[in-house]
Amino acid sequence: QLMTVSVEIINQLNDNYSYLISSKENNSSIIIDPSEADKILDILKKKKLILDYIFITHHHSDHTSGVIDLVKTYPEVKVFSPSKIGSISVDIISGGNNIATNLNEFEIIYAPGHTLDHIVLCDHKNNLLFVGDVLFRLGCGRVFEGTLEQMQNSLHELSNLPDRMLVYCGHEYTLNNLKFLEHIFKKNKILESVKNDIISDLDSKKRSIPFYLGDEKKCNPFLNQKCEMALELRDKNNYSDFEFFRYLREEKDSF
């Protein structure tokens, strides 16, 4: 019996996203990557939900700074994180773990690069993918702690997941990512049609997420170095997948 869950997107800080997973079938809830507790507590109260679980994708404070206050209000909450958070008691999660909650089940995928502890939460039954700062619409995370090889490898792992996965990422970076790709791939037809979709999402919903992994495989050269949009530039320079990824990431870092 599959429970239908819904995901509510909660704006945090300047451009961060936190996620609330809940279901009409019980009053349990999950929060992912909270940075501002107040907003989240208001929503939980309004919806009469109990916070049973917090999941963290990586240790950066803009994904964890709300945890302490949430734990104060919900002392029974279980916190799952790939690394410690202050003195809070956490269940450490790592790649290959499967965590069953009252609402769903997450497969934990290890995805280092942005940080060395970074994980991705994959709910196969509901086709939900919470990627933190690994993958963005038209982009990927900066490589702070890991290597470019690790980052490309993590993205490659994600690109092997089914197209129907709905991707929820950690920030609203899409317009900047679009501008970068327009700068690299001049007057690109595929990019122009993607741009129209993005502008319409931002106009109607004020955000460009979530997005389907399958769509992203077609137009995000960080995720798929063989995507059609990128072939001409790639072939002209005779890049391998990794050389192309490295070229793009280094260009983006100085963009």
What does this structure look like?
With 255 residues, this protein is α/β, with parallel strands linked by helices. 33% of the residues lie in helices and 24% in strands. The chain contains eight helices and 14 strands. It has helices at 37-46, 67-73, 148-159, 174-184, 189-205, 213-219, 231-237, 241-253; strands at residues 6-12, 16-22, 28-32, 50-55, 78-81, 91-92, 98-100, 105-110, 119-123, 128-132, 135-136, 139-140, 166-169, 211-212. The protein has a six-stranded mixed β-sheet, covered by helices on one side. Strands 7-8-9-10-13-14 form a six-stranded mixed β-sheet. Helix 1 (37-46) runs parallel beside helix 2 (67-73). The longest helix has 17 residues, at 189-205. It is globular, with a radius of gyration of 18 Å. The termini are far apart. The model has no long low-confidence stretch (mean pLDDT 97).
List the SSEs and their pairings:
Blueprint (H helix, E strand, L loop, with lengths): L5 E7 L3 E7 L5 E5 L4 H10 L3 E6 L11 H7 L4 E4 L9 E2 L5 E3 L4 E6 L8 E5 L4 E5 L2 E2 L2 E2 L7 H12 L6 E4 L4 H11 L4 H17 L5 E2 H7 L11 H7 L3 H13 L2
